Amino acid sequence: MYDDYSVLLNAKILRVPLDPSLWFTQEYFNASGEFTYRPLTTLSYWIDVHLYGFNPWTLHLVNLLWHLGACVLVWSLLTRLGFGEIPAFVGTLLFGVHPLPSEAVMCVTYRKDLLMVAGVLAAVRLALAGRHGWAYLVGALALLSKESALVLPLLVGFVLAADQQAGTFDSVLRFWKKPWLGYWLVISAYVLLRFGWMSHHADTLPPYPGGSLVTALGTGLWVWVHYLRSFFWPVALSPVHEFEAVVGLSDWRLWAALGLAGLGLGGVLRARSRNLRLQAGLLWLGAGLVPALGLYPVANPGAERFFYLPMFGAVMLVAEFCGWLVAALKAHRIWRKVAGGVALIAFAGFSFLTVRQSGVWADDLALWSAAYYHYPQSPKSQFGLGWALYQAGDSYAAKKRLDSLLRVSPWHPQALLGRATLHLQEKEFGRALDLYAQLLRVQPENAGAWLGRGKALEGLGRRAEARSAYEQGLEFAPGGAELFVAIGDLLKEAGDWKGAQAQYYRAVSANPAFAYSYNKLGIIQAAYVRDPVAAQGFFEKAVEVQPGSLAAREAMENLKRLEGLGHATD
Q1: I want to staple 539 with a disulfide (CB 3.0 to 4.6 A). Which of 52, 402, 479, 555 is the partner?
Q2: Long-range contacts made by residues 177-181, C-beta under 8 angstroms, separation at least 24?
Q3: In the prediction, which pLDDT does 13 show?
Q4: Contacts 24+ apart (CB under 8 A), 431-436
Q5: pLDDT for 186-220, tens place per residue?
Q6: Shortest CA distance to 201 belongs to which of 35, 37, 38?
Q7: What's the pTM?
Q8: What span, in angstroms and rounded, lies between the C-alpha atoms of 493 and 509?
Q9: Which sign, positive or negative, has the C-alpha torsion 430, 433, 437, 438?
Q10: CA distances from 113 to 11, 142, 310, 453, 517 (A)
Q11: 3-state SS of the chain: helix, strand, coil percent to 5?
């Protein structure tokens, strides 16, 4: 579901032996399905797949284990910073059962957040123990999991100051002194690797929401308010969040967000000489939320997984409050019981919401139904629900949803692509061709649109134009396995089975996880080469790489035909 298709199921890098040319060159991005350089995350998927295959249970179990490991590190950090057993237990339990991290835990392809946060927490804990060399190494691994770990030197400084090892938190800015020089060297090396050797076209700065950095910052401050509200009242969680841009000084949301930020800054200044742990918690929370400010526009601001790193700062604040409450109620037995009862109710509520939110990530239909429930006017949630309905086989409901979106946003690229695909399915080739043409006016580099245009032209009997469309698509997606298969089908229909076979092999090379390629090769072997053993091997491979898919079901039917002819061998 969701990003699993591009980053897991269709990722070539996971289906081949470890090859440095795929991991340390520009080919990494095509082979992994990632738009950012996160090789450690990809390596964790590679290990899972080569040990257990594409087994959803083991993939989810590994995610859960990483989250539990982060919980252990939270406990270790809280106790090391001098929190009592009760505040440390409350903080750790809150980190473990709160609904906000459920997105990172339940979606396999958000393991990058789990690895990054576990690495950051481990590096900070090592720094507290004075083992800075190991902290540099673990911090580097966190960066190779996700770039949000760039704030690591600041987080180390905040926590060491709370532990009274570094004087004041601003000592981290003295980068020429030990141990800070090492942390900043790690960050500098990563920046050179990421934006030098492994730069990518996706690094181009996308347009800011509202058209300006000032508007983006104002909206980002309001996103901060959303996160804090979701931490204390997580009842409206969703895989999609839509935020209207905060424009101008007359927008009350700007002043509300600035007021909240001012309170946080005032708390930092007040706690500077009185409560270093409180100061560290506030600073960690703020530093962790910097990506949400909109300095670099992200596709889904407000995504719950982005709060996974700053959540430790919020947990420190809760643990500090809990420690104060334990001390204040030490002599008041009844009030202690009342406070304990309230805490139990709160944790029970959080646990219930976490279980409910985990169910949202059960499949695409549940996910996008929840998104549409919270944001019915969002084009992203409308398209997501429409496409999920199509994948679930409910074409009628999918058409209604996509048509509704196109009435409001007639140039919405994904809706155009989805609706055109449904027209193809119903053999309405002329209408499909019109929509693909409309989409290509908006996105002329859309390889999926060129593929669909070719299919529509084939349906109208215009095969020469269809092949031209497929070849145009390959210019924008040189590794497009579906495009190679489409050209192969054209050649096979024209009687050139050897040319078709060559195209199918190119499809296998481009994407070893694309079952149709093996299915087509199996048909070639059975019908033209007359090699039933090879045909059986290709059909079985199609079932193996995409079990349960339509291509796999077709391969199983082909295997039955071979057996019926007495050609299959054990």
Answers
A1: 555
A2: 178/132, 179/127, 179/132, 179/135, 180/153
A3: 82
A4: 432/456, 432/459, 433/457, 433/460
A5: 999 999 988 888 877 655 556 666 667 777 788 88
A6: 35
A7: 0.83
A8: 22
A9: positive
A10: 19, 9, 11, 38, 34
A11: 75, 0, 25
